[in-house]
Write a structure and sequence with these properties.
Layout: H1 10-21, H2 32-37, H3 53-56, E1 66-67, H4 81-89, E2 94-97, H5 109-117, E3 122-124, E4 130-132, H6 150-158, E5 166-176, E6 182-194, E7 214-224, E8 232-238, E9 246-251, E10 256-259, E11 291-303, E12 320-321, E13 329-330, E14 333-346, E15 355-363, E16 368-376, E17 381-391, E18 393-394, E19 397-398, E20 408-417, E21 422-428, E22 439-440, H7 446-449, H8 452-460
Parallel strand pairs: 2-14
Antiparallel strand pairs: 1-2, 3-4, 5-6, 5-21, 5-22, 6-7, 7-8, 8-9, 9-10, 11-14, 12-13, 14-15, 15-16, 16-17, 17-20, 18-19, 20-21
InterPro entries: DUF1329, TAT_signal
Organism: Zavarzinia aquatilis
Protein name: DUF1329 domain-containing protein
Length: about 450
Amino acid sequence: MHIRKYDAGYSRRQFMERTAKGIAAAGVLQPLWPLIANAQDTAKAYPEELRSLDAYTKGKVKEGDIVDASNVDLVKDLLDPISYKQIKEMGRRIKVAPTTRDVTKLYNTKYLEATVRNAGKAKFDASGNVVTEDGKRWIGGNPFPNAKTGVEVYANLTLSWGRNDQAFYAVRDWDITPSGNVAYQYDFCWAEENVSGRVNDTGKPYVDGGFEDMLRFQSVFFTSPNDVKGTSFLSNWFYDQTKFPDLFGYLPAFKRERRFPTNQRFEPLVPGITLFLSDAWHAGDPMLTWGNYKIVETKPHLGVTGGNWHGDQPNWEPPVHGGPKGLTFYEYQVEFIPEVLVIESEPTGYPRAPVGKRRTYVDVRNMMSVGCNTYDRRGELWKTVDAAFGRFERGDLSVKDGNGEVVWSVQSVMCHDIQANRMSRFYLAQEIPGGYKCEWNQGSLYERYLTIQAIRRLGST
């Protein structure tokens, strides 16, 4: 006879107690962060019921199974409400992979090293910005790897979106109508470079040369079809998270750039796309232009953490399925995550924002979001941004960054407006029209893609 030390409801009671107090404390049997910092098996932090989906569901659903409309109710409590609706009503399916126990698979290597190296060195200054103990800009990695509050969690998400110093994404996008047809197909490039909190050159967390008040530069420019080719946007982020980014755009039809107002962050960049700048990385606006951060739930979850790079397919394109024409959803592999924090926040700095609140699901093992639902100003569910992060490896195939490390990055995104029932789905391709290819940490992107002169040049070619 096997006597369990912890009954099936032990973790649930622990999570409910923490949520009621509005605090986080990752790990149930012991603190999680020391295990991560010492490269130990993270399963030691959890009782048997949280070590696998098989144990959690008592064998009703297990690793290797497909979750679809026939069995999704068995794991409803492990999904966000929009994912549940997609599977139950719209033909989406997901495949369950084993839970990752080697935490190094959940991070960019250099970013994890910086997180361990700099743990305990972050604090908030009087204005609410993250600084080091001596008041300087953050020096790299998650500032709060063992985050205790909602705003600490969001600091981890905001200061380094993709957790690479530089990243250039070649993206293929499809925008799907309610009837399941492709309304638009775009190709675009997304470039970003952090000028503070850098991790790839130990001892040099900042870019020199007049960027002392900046956090990052980010641009997006479209390469096809011809009617939007050359349309470009540049967003300059200040380190002070109370300040709105400077947003510029280049419109080929007018052959000039213009400054856009702050509220442009809640509008599509081109027709048909459901993703707003505000949605990017589930943290597309400066952290302190949102507020009322709070932990509203602590729970196990089914989320995307790896296994979704399709380097063995032509141009790395993921398979699709579901919806009226079989074109609506990517086929994601998910895993049972023993502990996520659900963080609620509101756009306090945007009086006319169409968003009323968002709920972001964050994996405590790497403090990365595994899903985000936004609600309109009436409190009704509006959109989900479901991003697949992970290592770019499959079998013997892999992609390396400028450090010779296997790339850990975003791989694909689904942004579903369930009120209009319109889906934008896009993925990082091997190459897109114009000859653009993805790259990570291979030298500065600033002069090539991240200035007004650059977006003007890109828009004119």
